Amino acid sequence: MTDAHQSGDSEARNHEFDDVFSGGVAAQEHLSIDDLGEVTLDISADIGRCDITIREILELKNGTVLPLDKVAGEMADVYVNGIVFARGEVVVLVDSLHVRLAEIVGAVEKDSGYA
Predict the structure, then answer these.
(1) What's the average model confidence in pLDDT over 74-81?
(2) What is the DSSP string of 29-40?
(3) By C-alpha distance, which of 75, 85, 77 is closest to 106?
(4) Which tens digits make up the pLDDT trace of 6-43?
(5) Domain parsing of the chain, residue ranges
(6) How far apart are alpha carbons 54 and 39 in whole angstroms?
């Protein structure tokens, strides 16, 4: 226990803190969408999952093929910083996997102006 508590001095005291600014001007006054253009985000795609036992994990070796729960051509969820952002088709281009976006989650189709 502190000396103040042991001596019976349990009176609360008010204290005012000074405002702290790192640049003299509050950030919300000068932040624009252009300022965020170079922020890096983590993008990932869920191409499938599987459940296996610990025994099966211990038996894995190079060349083992894991069966995933999605079939070829099925849409994959695309995540931005762990949040679902879009759905797309997994495609192979020059021996690497890519995702062709087909649907942006929550996006409203823009009117193309064509009748």
Answers:
(1) 93
(2) GT--GGGGTT--
(3) 85
(4) 555 667 788 777 666 555 555 556 778 888 888 999 99
(5) 41-104
(6) 39
